[in-house]
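R.M. (postdoc): so does anyone remember the format we settled on? I'll just put the structure tokens first.
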């Protein structure tokens, strides 16, 4: 059954939009149209922002503990529907269900609970120091425009909504056109828990709606996650209008395999670290840097592990790799592979479309070797199941190579010696690195280096306006 939802969620109700323009939603595993959403315009965005502005004074007045209670209720409600939510996201973006159950199921629940805890202990006001009675206030920044990509839409949305609501901000969400139906499902949950109308609003659409939201004078902060190209435009607008902005952008991260690494550990973490979500994750470590002395061994292991991976229907819980999100994305990925081969790279695995999957936007997991650092596949974010494996001479060479990138988002260092791995990680110009995998706590900051973004403060800091009230010492 198709879901045609050409509407917006404003002031606690699903309401008609002012345009008949719409965007089809296609299941990337079958290429069948499964629904549509409104391609909202500036007038619709303005209505959503007005609702968030109207709701702001009342929401600001609630205590942090009351806001924590709403977030906990949301987590409980979400937990009951997590399985349905994961399936709905997979239906739209092709994320393999075993991953979607985490990123669109259990992770958002954990993020909402974590932010409830932050709200519980949040102190909006404190005295500056024992010998200075001045006050420091932490006030909600105001109305937040939250712009979300399609690859892990619910955990990325939770990581915006959680702290924004805990801090006392109201929000207008503009989901990605590929994954908007799940955001409407979240809106239904917000009504179920009795969140006051207008505190969260959802307006769907593409770039026009996103641009209107960013440019709207009623938006005090833009929290954007998406491509570096869009992030530059958005950050420039926010600069011109002097709005707060967080921009979490693209990456081309490195997995550094040191010569003492336990290769069984590396193999066990390969897909989740280097090609999660069929390579469509910002922190994917798509450059594997391997010691020259063990290069052949590492390449063989990568080829064997990915060669044995299951490619297929993302709804099947055994699938490790699913389709790419769209035909456009598949063509982009294939053109990267072709450009690498034309430039002298060699495909050690994959490079084409998998057999037996005539429908769906599938590309084989692909491992490229004989890479030169000036090649586009070494430098640019591909956002697909394509890895390069490149040899290094020693730890210093590995660090130089890892840092030879315009991005700096994720990263991983594999070694049996945690101190040695940590020393390498300290030298890498990248925002979040994990040793022997890629797990990061909700409490850890996620500041991108270089073209990977600006902002990404942990906790509620990104949604607060600081203010001081200087008072005379008595
Ligand atoms: P995208 O930039 O095309 O779109 C992201 C969102 O921004 C969508 O909702 C889109 O409609 C909107 N948008 C696009 N251009 C806009 C503009 N000029 N003004 C306002 N809104 C605009 O990205 P995508 O293809 O949806 O997602 C993939 C990208 O996101 C990759 O580059 C990936 O690395 C990045 N990403 C980063 C993180 C992170 O935390 N750093 C997380 C996930 C994805």
């Amino acid at each position: 059954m198709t879901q045609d939802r050409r509407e917006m969620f404003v002031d606690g109700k699903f309401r008609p939009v002012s345009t008949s323009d719409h965007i089809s939603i296609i299941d990337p595993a079958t290429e069948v149209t499964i629904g549509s959403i409104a391609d909202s315009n500036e007038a619709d965005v303005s209505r959503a922002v007005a609702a968030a502005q109207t709701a702001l004074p009342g929401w600001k007045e609630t205590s942090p503990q009351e806001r924590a209670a709403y977030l906990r209720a949301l987590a409980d409600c979400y937990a009951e529907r997590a399985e349905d939510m994961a399936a709905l996201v997979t239906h739209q973006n092709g994320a393999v269900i075993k991953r979607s159950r985490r990123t669109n199921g259990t992770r958002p629940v954990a993020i909402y609970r974590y932010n409830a805890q932050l709200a519980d202990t949040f102190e909006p006001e404190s005295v500056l120091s024992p010998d200075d009675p001045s006050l420091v206030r932490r006030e909600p920044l105001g109305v937040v425009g939250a712009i979300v990509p399609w690859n892990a839409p619910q955990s990325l949305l939770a990581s915006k909504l959680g702290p924004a609501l805990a801090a006392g901000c109201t929000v207008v969400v503009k989901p990605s056109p590929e994954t908007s139906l799940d955001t409407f499902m979240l809106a239904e949950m917000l009504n179920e828990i009795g969140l006051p109308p207008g505190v969260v609003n959802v307006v769907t659409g593409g770039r026009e709606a996103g641009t209107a939201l960013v440019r709207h004078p009623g938006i005090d902060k833009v929290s954007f996650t998406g491509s570096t190209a869009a992030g530059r435009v958005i950050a420039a607008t926010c600069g011109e209008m002097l709005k707060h902005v967080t921009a979490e952008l693209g990456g081309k991260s490195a997995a550094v395999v040191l010569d003492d690494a336990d290769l069984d550990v590396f193999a066990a973490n390969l897909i989740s670290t280097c090609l999660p979500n069929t390579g469509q994750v910002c922190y994917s470590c798509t450059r594997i840097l391997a010691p020259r002395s063990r290069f052949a061994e590492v390449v063989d292991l990568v080829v064997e592990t990915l060669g044995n991976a299951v490619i297929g229907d993302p709804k099947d819980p055994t699938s490790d790799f699913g389709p790419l999100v769209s035909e456009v994305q598949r063509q982009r990925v294939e053109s990267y592979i072709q450009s690498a081969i034309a430039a002298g790279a060699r495909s050690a695995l994959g490079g084409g479309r998998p057999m037996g999957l005539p429908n769906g936007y599938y590309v084989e997991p692909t491992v490229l070797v004989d890479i030169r650092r000036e090649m586009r596949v070494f430098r640019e974010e591909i956002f697909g199941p394509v890895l390069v494996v490149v040899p290094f001479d020693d730890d210093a060479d590995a660090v130089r190579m890892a840092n030879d990138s315009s991005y700096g988002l994720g990263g991983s260092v594999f070694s049996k010696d945690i101190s040695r791995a940590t020393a390498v990680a300290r030298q890498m110009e990248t925002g979040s690195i994990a040793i022997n995998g890629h797990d990061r706590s909700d409490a850890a900051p996620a500041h991108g280096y270089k073209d990977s973004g600006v902002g990404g403060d942990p906790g509620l800091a990104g949604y607060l306006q600081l203010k001081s009230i200087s008072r005379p010492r008595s």
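R.M.: ...and that's the designed sequence above, right after the tokens. Also worth knowing: Residues 147-151, 156, 174, 176-177, 206-207, 210-211, 214, 225-227, 230, 233-234, 248-251, 282, 381, 383, 409, 448, 453 surround nicotinamide-adenine-dinucleotide (CB under 6 Å). The first helix runs from residue 42 to 61.
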